[in-house]
Amino acid sequence: MRSSDVSAGLAEGAGQAAAERIRDAAILRYGRDGFAVGLRAVGADAGVTAGLVLHYFGSKEGLRRACDAYVLSVIRSEKLKATTGGPAVVIAQLAEVEEYAPIALYALRSLQAGGELAIEFMEQMCADALEYLEAGVAQGLLKPSRDPVARARYLATQAMGSLLLWVSLHPEFHEIDDFRKELRQLWDEIALPALELFSEGLFVDRTMLDEYLMYVCDPPAGDAKP
Amino acid sequence: MRSSDVSAGLAEGAGQAAAERIRDAAILRYGRDGFAVGLRAVGADAGVTAGLVLHYFGSKEGLRRACDAYVLSVIRSEKLKATTGGPAVVIAQLAEVEEYAPIALYALRSLQAGGELAIEFMEQMCADALEYLEAGVAQGLLKPSRDPVARARYLATQAMGSLLLWVSLHPEFHEIDDFRKELRQLWDEIALPALELFSEGLFVDRTMLDEYLMYVCDPPAGDAKP
DNA sequence: CGGGGCGTTGAACGTGCGTTTAGGCTTTGA
DNA sequence: TCAAAGCCTAAACGCACGTTCAACGCCCCG
């Protein structure tokens, strides 16, 4: 198994190869089966014992943090910003690259479990989405929003959330190829309604929006606007 | 604590009250802390020991099934279909009713964990969404879709998925009121971009949609249309 | 009054977890 | 050649879990 060049906070010793092997095996296992799997199983995947895992990473949480840091560094370093699609496309695009599919799966699993990486990950997704959207607006492809940041957060949350839900509903991927295959299938199911919604909207008129705008400018009762 | 009338597959004996108490406590606990909590903690919340929990429900999975069945029966029996909003509104609406807030939280937690209830739950959500949408189309409020079923699935998945992601990112609700409060906050954040998207769309023109429609009618290579 | 069923407990068992620790094995340097 | 340093293993510990089981109180029925 070819391991990546990025070290991402790993100790620079002779056992670095083993540590990387453990970390890669953990990303693969955690992504496939969730974070409930034991250290013995992770170690077995890497061809070592549980003791060695703890020797390098201190604790199970330490291993988790190392995986998080590595995954985040890959997502950050890979120039995924070059895409023209939304934030969910990042995951799909990541999964299409053979080597990075486990990382995409791990990221989703991490989002499912919550924690620090999940929050940081979503914040980056929102920031990237804002960038895409503003670029699209500047190019005249996308309509401007009254609150671009909120719109970016909304679209990123919707996209990643639906991906997350889909992972939860398809609990086990026994092969990493299944992940890619089912992801493409999901994409096919989504494409038409998404394009419809983005191109034509859903409501036939703007009364709902206008009523809301009236409401936020002049709430019926309570605190005055500063 | 007042317990509901719905029995949903519980044994009709003298110990029914205790079984209901255990089941309600389990729904509350599982919803708040996830399904990793032990039977002793659930039992303690209900004022009984772990042994009695297993006496009534056979195993931990049996308790989980009983909770699932009850939650699904409540969601089904309550006339939540009367809402005019989307499928995510069901959860929000459910959470607004004091008594049903734990049930809404449990449903989300179940969606997070996957399994049978999760799939059944989503299928019902999609079916309900289709009903709402078609009603809206019939009333002339919503635009018709080229594939109404796919659109319903898409919107339901997006809505529930974003809710699920939000729960994952806010890992612990120590009070059930926090859940309601944060849910309203989420609603406020979402309202404007959602209404914008639904009213005005995102793309300035239809080229993306038209290109996709051209593509699906005449794919560049491979299988012919039947 | 007596006994049998029911609801309930508390202790025990086996298992698997994360973690610790002692000690081999291999490599390296003087 | 010997010793030190590192990598790595295997066994064990404590713990919490789900689960089992024998026994205890209690109420109802005969």
Question: Overview of this structure, please?
Answer:
Two copies of one chain form a homodimer. Chain A is an all-alpha fold and 226 residues long. Chain A has two domains: 1-58, no CATH class; 60-215, Tetracycline Repressor, domain 2 (Orthogonal Bundle). Chain A has helices at residues 16-33, 39-46, 50-57, 60-77, 87-96, 101-113, 116-138, 148-169, 176-200, 207-217. In chain A, helix 1 (16-33) packs across helix 2 (39-46), helix 4 packs across helix 6 and helix 5 packs across helix 6 (101-113). At the A-B interface, helix 6, helix 7, helix 8, helix 9 and helix 10 of A face helix 6, helix 7, helix 8, helix 9 and helix 10 of B. Chain A binds a DNA duplex (30 and 30 nucleotides) through residues 13-15, 18, 38-40, 48-52, 54-55, 59-60.
